[in-house]
From TrEMBL:
Residues 95-164, 240-326 form the E2F/DP family winged-helix DNA-binding domain. GO terms for cellular component: RNA polymerase II transcription regulator complex. The lineage of its organism: Eukaryota, Metazoa, Chordata, Craniata, Vertebrata. This is Transcription factor E2F8. It comes from Nestor notabilis (Kea). GO terms for biological process: negative regulation of DNA-templated transcription; positive regulation of macromolecule metabolic process; positive regulation of nucleobase-containing compound metabolic process; sprouting angiogenesis. PANTHER family: TRANSCRIPTION FACTOR E2F, TRANSCRIPTION FACTOR E2F8. Residues 1-40, 339-358, 389-408, 783-810 are annotated as: Disordered.
Length: 823
DNA sequence: CGTTCCCGCCACCCG
DNA sequence: CGGGTGGCGGGAACG
């Protein structure tokens, strides 16, 4: 059937990849021009392009280089064989030639990776479809995944805007973050674990808890993750509810960004993606479908050279998987500059704080199905809100009640609606403007417009000392904190920091809100020495191992180098807060100290970031704990914030902001609070609001944490996660991505974080196994299974001998070696 | 035979 | 109601 079509439609000249294959319509030029490399699929395109526009040509040329890789080559080979065989046959396009991946390549060839702002980077679906000589349907697939990476955005029906890779890094960072918040790492581990168990004891139903927790609790559903600049563009068209492919794509990417060997098997990915929306019913067909989709996505991602296909060989045989080959994604942005700026204090952040809403409109519970997006008015709203917020922030206001009703209606904002007409124009302008802004920002140290708003942080506040939980006591220095230390132990909700008691309402059902950008994140403080040392070494190794094709740049290295083992900062004495503030490489003690001091006075978020490592919401500590304090001290601020949210506008946006508040405890967990609850508790509301529109929340006491953990199913009911240092030890040195912190820095505020992280660590931690590492292609994965039952955390704490290395012990039991082979 | 995944039916959604 | 979108899964090409 295809043949006919092909013939019929093949009129679009160069589009066809195999010139010779098409006797009838053989494009005349191809041969001449492609002396050496006649078979590069893109070659035709190039010609086409060059003929069409000189401007594009250059892009093409550049792209040409990259094209010579992967897919293209394969295609080439195939074709060659094909030709040599029965050259003249009407070799129908042969399935491969029609592959989505190739198609995507062709598509990409038309647009520059980094388009200049002023340009008509518009994409017309019809045109493209025609040019590429494929049905529209296929283009949608490509565009959808590209859109998920914000490489394009829909402007209107049949029309997209091309952004190229400009937003890529930001997007990835955002995705990574969301992935972390979603506990993807844990989910992956869980799945693997289950798998593992299945293998040996066919216990189908054994881990109810696991299943349960996974199914119901974790079920953190998130929707499309937006980038700051691109929120509602195309709202009118953007209506589509599901966006499943887009969302799937994002999630898929997140998995890579979050998992340590950056390899994800289709199977696991599929399970996670499924698990998310529906509890796990091992629906066979569904699984199959999911996998099919994943292949589609993977093909596109491969074309983008973000991933590549590999095979993971396990006992069970080899499974298809993909390995991330894209750029390394630094946890927190803002720091491209770190290295350079290290010694000095980063420039104060003067920018108005972008509202979180803007950054992520994502947070809509997918279920809620209130299609806010549909209202074009929203576009306008977003803007106006932004403005309002700025104004409001500085303006005195009286606290207003926050409208709990999420269902705002557009009706409520007539004025906004009225302004709609102007939107389009605005958008355009905005775009270009934005582009400029971006550049500007990049040059500044604060790279990310949206990503790292230091926002609220700037308020002078007492350092994190008060860390939520235990007030003073925490100051303990490094040594291993005795488990007992957990006076704050779990179950009981002793006193809340502020003395105010509050309740946290979890919204299990409701998905969590994904906060794309939480300004208030910081890396874990860790003694620079340890981390650094480790980092500098392992990461490289890992990278090499994993990346054998010698692909690329190992960004990490540079960073790593920056702060080598040289410094053995003895920061012990420093307070947690100080440590937190430090940047790992800015280890020069003197500098550090000074800086820290300064920081204390004025918390500058930027300072709180470490070049790489684990991100932890820091602000929260400060804010949360100080709740009481805040109330008094920061009342002004709080009220302001309040106002902002409660304004009518807020009502709309609220979707994002007020609908669900995410109490972002340690990275992995995301506790959602209903707006109501927030409102109910002064402490929370204040802290939440004040602490940036992000998901930041006050640090609940460890007990709360435990509660949460249990509730969520991260830890068995009986187990308590002590707010003790031991946990910290969980970290495995070999982890390239996450910086491990030594037990030493435990501190008040930190405790809570630590505790929470535990789960994350366990799962994710990877024992450092040099040998393994040395074998190229071999990746080790750890599954932790608990001999005595579901994670016996308790044993862990028992183990706490002060220093780390527990990693290898109890939790990580089996360690399997997986071989990854290239295709 | 298992993997990969193209193709296009057809349900949505919107104007 | 027509046209743009895009789930979805059969089943064919591929290995």
């Amino acid at each position: 059937k295809t043949p006919l079509k092909q013939a019929a439609t093949s009129r679009s000249v160069l589009t066809e990849i195999q010139p010779e294959c098409q006797p009838l319509t053989t494009p005349p030029k191809p041969k001449e021009i492609l002396p050496e490399d006649p078979w590069t699929p893109t070659s035709n395109l190039k010609m086409l392009i060059s003929a069409a526009s000189p401007e594009i040509r250059s892009r093409e040329q550049r792209r040409e280089l990259s094209n010579n890789t992967s897919v293209v080559l394969q295609a080439k080979h195939c074709l060659q064989e094909h030709l040599s065989g029965h050259e003249y046959e009407k070799t129908q396009p042969s399935r491969k030639e029609k592959s989505l991946g190739l198609l995507c390549h062709k598509f990409l060839a038309w647009y520059p990776d980094y388009p200049s702002t002023a340009e008509n980077n518009y994409i017309c679906l019809d045109e493209v479809a025609e040019e590429l000589n494929v049905e529209r349907r296929r283009i949608y697939d490509i565009l959808n995944v590209l859109e998920s990476l914000h490489m394009v955005s829909r402007l209107a029906k049949n029309r997209y805007a091309w952004h190229g890779r400009h937003n890529l890094s930001k997007t990835l960072q955002a995705l990574k973050k969301v992935g972390e918040e979603n506990k993807y790492t844990q989910q992956i581990q869980m799945i693997k674990k289950r798998e593992y168990e299945h293998e040996f004891d066919l216990d189908g139903e054994r881990n109810e808890d696991m299943a349960r927790s996974f199914g119901s609790n974790e079920h953190l559903e998130m929707s499309f993750v937006e980038l700051p600049g691109m929120e509602f563009r195309a709202a009118s068209v953007n209506s589509r509810k599901d966006k499943s492919l887009r969302v799937m794509s994002q999630k898929f990417v997140m998995l890579f960004l979050v998992s340590t060997p950056q390899i994800v098997s289709l199977e696991v990915a599929a399970k996670i993606l499924i698990g998310e929306d529906q509890l796990e019913d091992l629906d066979k067909s569904k699984f199959k479908t999911k996998i099919r989709r994943l292949y589609d996505i993977a093909n596109v991602l491969s074309s983008l050279e973000l991933i590549k296909k590999v095979h993971v060989t396990e006992e069970r045989g080899r499974k298809p998987a993909f390995k991330w080959t894209g750029p390394e994604v630094l946890p927190s942005i803002q720091d491209t500059k770190l290295e350079t700026t290290s010694t000095t204090c980063p420039p104060p952040i003067s920018e108005p704080i972008p509202s979180k809403e803007q950054c992520s409109k994502n947070l809509f519970p997918s279920r809620g199905k209130q299609n806010f997006t549909r209202h074009p008015s929203l576009i306008k709203l977003v803007k106006s809100i932004e403005n309002d917020r700025r104004k409001i922030q500085s303006a005195p206001t009286s606290p207003v009640k926050i409208s709990a009703s999420t269902n705002q209606d557009s009706a409520a904002f007539p004025s906004e609606v009225a302004q709609l007409p102007a939107i389009t124009k605005d958008k355009l302008e905005e775009q270009s403007k934005k582009a400029k802004e971006m550049k500007t920002k990049l040059s500044g140290s604060a790279l990310e417009c949206g990503l790292s708003f230091p926002e609220i942080v700037p308020k002078p506040e007492p350092p994190f000392t008060t860390a939520a939980m235990q007030q003073p006591a925490l100051t303990q220095p490094l040594s291993a904190c005795p488990p007992s230390h957990s006076s704050v132990s779990p179950v009981i909700l002793p006193q809340t920091p502020s003395g105010v008691s509050y309740t946290i309402y979890l919204h299990p059902s409701q998905a969590h809100t994904v906060t794309t950008y939480s300004p208030s994140f910081m890396l874990q403080p860790l003694p620079g020495a340890n981390v650094t040392g480790i980092k500098s070494i392992n990461p490289k190794v890992l990278n090499k191992i994993t990346t054998e094709e010698g692909d690329n740049q190992i960004a990490t290295d540079d960073v790593t180098k920056t702060f080598t083992t040289t410094e053995r900062p003895t920061i012990k004495s420093e307070t947690v807060s100080q440590q937190c503030l430090k940047r790992s490489h800015a280890l020069q003690e003197s500098h550090l100290i000074k800086r820290c001091r300064r920081d204390e006075e004025n918390l500058d978020t930027s300072l709180t970031f470490f070049p790489s490592g684990y991100l932890i919401p820091l602000t929260q500590c400060a804010h949360g704990n100080k709740a009481g304090f805040l109330n008094k001290e920061k009342t002004g601020t709080c009220s302001l914030q309040h106002t902002a949210y409660s304004s009518p506008i807020a009502g709309v946006i609220p979707v994002t902001a007020s609908e669900l508040k995410a109490v972002n405890i340690p990275a992995p967990l995301n506790i959602m609070l209903s707006p109501t609850s927030i409102a109910a508790s002064p402490v929370l509301s204040n802290s939440c609001l004040s602490s940036s529109n992000t998901s930041s929340a006050p640090n609940p006491s460890s007990s709360v944490l435990n509660f949460t953990l249990q509730h969520i199913g991260l830890i068995p009911a009986g187990v308590q996660v002590p707010a003790n240092p031991v946990l910290q030890h969980m970290v495995v040195p070999s982890q390239p991505e996450n910086v491990s912190h030594s037990s030493e820095d435990l501190q008040e505020g930190e405790v809570s974080k630590t505790a929470l992280q535990l789960p994350h660590r366990w799962v994710e931690g990877e024992p450092s196994v040099p040998k393994e590492l040395q074998e190229p292609q071999a990746v080790t994965e750890n599954f932790f299974r608990t001999p005595g039952g579901p994670n016996s955390v308790s044993s862990l704490s028992a183990n706490s001998d002060g220093t780390d290395r527990i990693s290898q012990g109890t939790l990580y039991i089996p360690q399997r070696k997986l071989e990854v082979s290239e295709d």
